[in-house]
Write a structure and sequence with these properties.
Elements: H1 3-6, H2 13-32, E1 36-45, E2 49-55, H3 58-75, H4 77-103, H5 109-119, H6 123-150, H7 156-182, H8 195-215, H9 217-230
Length: about 240
């Protein structure tokens, strides 16, 4: 082994693990976004109503914000922005790979149709999720970094909740607005679709996402603490 090769820097294990978490959650969110889940609430909430409805990708997508917050905390704003924007480009690769399989000839036509229905996200879902992703994820990194400057690196809980809570609101408004308001015809809603339904979807989804942001704060402390103990992060 040459001396030049021996001196080649290695990527920190924490960075690899967080990037892997981000990509895994992102791909999972992409292929599960088409299914809308609905849970009855014990009581009727203002704006939300008696039922909480949200995409099946909600939990997976929330994990991407956990990953980017940890990544920003450990490796800096620039590195996190690279991760987010590379992830955005990879979304198109995921779509291309999924659709190449959908459009390919299948042995069982009935299964092929079911497969296409399950994994072939409609135009409204694709447009809404991609636009919401690129705006909200970059906003999350910027707000997290800004709060770190304002608090002089203290109050990690504030950076996590503040950045995720704000960016998730933007994400929800964009996704629901595009998927269910701009293109309602793609989800079978028709001309009788009421704006109140959009408000209900936004309120319900954001309530869930805000709850997840509160619950994942201890995990941000655990992850960043474990990484700091095992390596010295490189800020960019």
């Amino acid at each position: 082994m040459s001396s030049a090769h021996a001196r080649r820097p290695t990527l920190p294990t924490g960075a690899i693990a967080l990037a892997a978490l981000f990509v895994t959650a992102l791909v999972t969110a992409q292929v599960t976004a088409a299914k809308v889940l609905a849970f009855e609430l014990p009581t009727t909430l203002p704006l939300v109503g008696p039922e909480l409805a949200f995409p099946g990708a909600a939990l997976a997508y929330a994990l991407t914000f956990l990953a980017t917050d940890c990544y920003t905390e450990l490796y800096g704003k620039r590195s996190a922005q690279v991760l987010v924007n590379v992830g955005f480009v990879m979304n198109f690769l995921v779509l291309a790979l999924v659709w190449s399989t959908i459009l390919g000839p299948g042995v069982d036509p009935e299964f092929s149709e079911t497969f296409a229905t399950a994994l072939g996200a409609s135009t409204n879902i694709i447009a809404g999720s991609l636009l919401a992703y690129v705006v909200s994820q970059n906003l999350d990194v910027l707000i997290f970094h800004r709060l770190a400057d304002v608090t002089d690196g203290a109050h990690l809980w504030l950076r996590n909740i503040g950045s995720t809570g704000t960016s998730q609101l933007v994400d929800t408004v964009i996704f629901v607005g595009v998927a269910f308001w701009v293109f309602p015809q793609y989800v079978g809603i028709g001309p009788d679709f009421k704006p109140a339904i959009v408000v209900s979807l936004i309120a319900g989804q954001y309530l869930l996402k805000l709850l997840i942001a509160l619950l994942d704060t201890p995990f941000v402390y655990l992850i960043t603490g474990a990484v700091r103990r095992s390596e010295e992060p490189t800020f960019a």
